[in-house]
Amino acid sequence: MGSFSTITFTNIKCTPLDEEFASFEYCYLKSVNRTYKYMSLKVNLLKSPVTKVKVNVALMQRLSGYKPFLYNVTVDACKLLGNYKAANPLLKYLSGLFIPFSNMNHSCPFNDNIIVEKLPIDHLNTQTNFVLPFPKGDYAFYSNWFAYDINRADVRVYYTIS
């Protein structure tokens, strides 16, 4: 069998773009020990219920600045979560990276705060080694979250594949 890649989180940036609509209670990476590292974030929805959500996700690779790599797609999150089993394989893959560790496991409306809790690096390592292998390098996962067609939050996760 071939060699395995290892993902290491390097940074996370959560930026509220409309603080009357949503705010980040927390957004961080935590290294418990050499093998257990995770990310967590909590978005407080200040105007719920939220019934219309889109997300734009882009994978970026660092090559003299971050440049688009593989995909940049915008999806209706309400439709995706409402019919997850029938989703396009790429969207299913991307959402499978974080949905098992979040409360975003249902369709709209969203009445509660959005939480991604203790997403372990091991989960991402499994996804990038066995599901969709990636070349070594520095990457960023950019996501822009739209409610009612207005960009409300920007979340960027930076990581290295070695």
Automatic annotation (TrEMBL):
<protein>
    <recommendedName>
        <fullName>MD-2-related lipid-recognition domain-containing protein</fullName>
    </recommendedName>
</protein>
<dbReference type="Pfam" id="PF06477">
    <property type="entry name" value="DUF1091"/>
</dbReference>
<dbReference type="InterPro" id="IPR010512">
    <property type="entry name" value="DUF1091"/>
</dbReference>
